[in-house]
Amino acid sequence: MAGNEAAGRPAPACVLGIDLGTTSVKAALLMGAEQGQVVAESCSRETQAHTSSLEAGPQGMEQNVRRIVRALNECLAALPQEQLQRVSHIGISGQMHGIVFWKRDKGCKWTECGTGPTFEPEEVSHLTTWQDGRCSPTFLSSLPLPQSHISLATGFGCATVYWYLKKSPDFLKSYDAAGTIHDYVVAMLCGLKKPLMSIQNAASWGYFNSRSKSWNTDILKKSGFPIHLLPEVGDPGSIAGRTICAWHGIPKGAKVGIALGDFQCSVYSCLTERTDAVLNISTSAQLTISMPSGFQPPETPDPSSAVTYFPYFNDDYLAVAASLNGGNVLATFVDMVARWTEELGLQVQEPAIYTKIIEAALAQNDSKLSVHPTIFGERHIPEQLASVTNIAVSDLSLGHVTRALCRGIVENLCSMLPVQHLMEMGVRRILGSGSALARNEVLLAKARLSLTCRPALDTCLRTLAHLLMFFHLQ
User: Fold this and answer.
1) Distance between CA atoms of 224 and 259, rounded to whole angstroms?
2) By percentage, how much of the chain surpasses pLDDT 90?
3) Cα(58)–Cα(333) distance, rounded to whole angstroms?
4) DSSP labels for 305-338?
5) Using CA atoms, how far apart are residues 87 and 213, in angstroms rounded to an integer?
6) How far apart are the two ends of the chain, measured CA to CA in Å?
7) Cα angle at 271 between 16 and 376, to 5 degrees?
8) Can you give the pLDDT at residue 10?
9) Residue 451: helix, strand or coil by DSSP?
10) Per-residue pLDDT averaged across 206-226, rounded?
11) How many separate helices (H) and strands (E) can be counted in the chain?
12) Global confidence as pTM
């Protein structure tokens, strides 16, 4: 930087990447260097945004948008002001499928903070996330059949709108815009009157035809669906607009990309060859491969199939075994242990429990104890729950149970997209990514053991590496 200034050259521009995940917000500043693009600075904050659902009860899974935006502001405030002032492009990814509603003219208010102008949510609903379970199989079967290659599931944006339409119609009357949480942030930064959504996120909502890149408006209209809530749709990698205010020191007028699916971005950072597959285990888990150029998914889905075709980039598709059970299963197990210890009159913090169970698992050998971890069901078998079998008195230690649980998460994913199938499709290497895989040596070891494609599993656990996708914006 000093060298550039001494030579009379302007300091290089930066790209800001933001990921609005299920449990945390991450931000990274990327800039050019002799060795290519590098992460200059990064920051992560837990959102702690989960909140109860007044309408859906225990089946609801909602998050407080104010807490998410607060975590985002904390992330940006922690990044160097000097580099934020050089940001020319902003790319945003986030958790897919979910939906948040807002009032167009009152979606946020801009205020001053220590690092400059920032926005705070105003007339905005909670975010109903991809983990939401309010739409039962019976309810979903009562809805119109979508013209889409992706089966409709609970937690999908359009399914949630139908639920409100039938169960709490007055709720929808308070809002005139909707999108994913990352669509909302893009709309606020750019002052968009109508939200703009990438085809990646649109497909994740349901009732979207990926071939024509359009909503099923005729089908939706006939059933009374409030189609004015549907965002406009654009291609991933396109520009949604420019910042309407200086934001934490980022100049007014910085280009903001259309919001992208976090899954597609995580795959993009790893997938360098079409003979690669990617294993991603974060809150959920996915095993995916890239389909050949020109591939088109079937016009109608097979509801019983564990494999779905997600829109990727440049009109390509990914074949994905998308499990609802990943790091969230381990988090639930840790929470259960914490509750048990509390009931026994003891107090142990969850981070300490997580560390201890991993250490205990590393100290044990494999056993015949078997954990089928589908505590959250699966989209293709929503009624399936978790189970434990082959319980022997010698295998009841915390280490044995944790080890079996980690093995079960990987084996469940492999049952959805078997390794033999991957090899038949020409896969020669499997790359790993995701926060749960990065934090858990036992889970990583089980992935290496189960996914025996040649060569052994490589890890792609670079800090916020998937945000490199946002260089497509330049």
Assistant:
1) 28
2) 73
3) 18
4) -SEEEEE-STT-EEEEEEES-SHHHHHHHHHHHH
5) 31
6) 21
7) 85
8) 61
9) coil
10) 96
11) 16, 26
12) 0.88
Give the span between the Cα atoms of 108 and 54, in whole angstroms: 23
Q: How many CB atoms lie within 10 A of CB 321?
A: 24
The DSSP call for residue 209 is E
Dist CA 102 CA 175 (whole Å):
5
Cα gap 137→340, rounded to integer Å:
32
Instruction: With cut-offs at 50, 70 and 90, classify the pLDDT of residue 34.
Output: low
For residue 409, which of 456, 455, 363, 361 has the smallest C-alpha distance?
A: 361
Task: Give how far Cα 400 sits from Cα of 214, 393, 443, Å.
Answer: 50, 11, 13
How would you classify the pairing of strands 87-94 and 177-179?
A: unpaired
Tell me which residue has tokens 């997938």.
271
Q: Bigger pLDDT: 304 or 132?
A: 132
Asked if 437 and 467 count as a contact pair (C-beta separation under 8 A), the reply is no
**CA-based nearest residue to 16, from 463, 471, 462:** 471
Tell me what percent of the chain is helix, strand and coil, each rounded to the nearest 5: 35, 25, 40
> Can you give the pLDDT at residue 463?
33
Query: Which residue, 105, 385, 413, is CA-closest to 288?
Result: 413
What span, in angstroms and rounded, lies between the C-alpha atoms of 286 and 309?
12
Residue 174's contacts (CB-CB under 8 Å, 6 or more residues apart) are 101, 103, 123, 125
Minimal CA–CA distance to 250: which of 434, 85, 34, 454?
A: 85
Determine how many CB atoms are found less than 10 A away from the CB of residue 215. 25
Query: How do 429-433 and 458-459 pair as beta strands?
Result: parallel
Question: pLDDT tens digit string along 379-399?
Answer: 999 888 999 999 999 999 999
| Interatomic CA distance for residues 32 and 13, integer angstroms | 8
Determine what percent of the chain is predicted with pLDDT higher than 70: 92
Q: 112, exposed or middle or buried, with CB in 10 Å at 0-12, 13-18, 19+? A: exposed
Tokens at 361, concatenated: 């698992």
Tokens of 409: 């998460």
Helix (H, G, I), strand (E, B) or coil at 5: helix
Q: 373, 409 in Cβ contact below 8 A?
A: yes
- Tokens 């599993």 sit on residue: 457
The CA-atom distances, in angstroms, between 154 and each of 4, 381, 461 are 53, 12, 30
d(CA 308, CA 237): 22
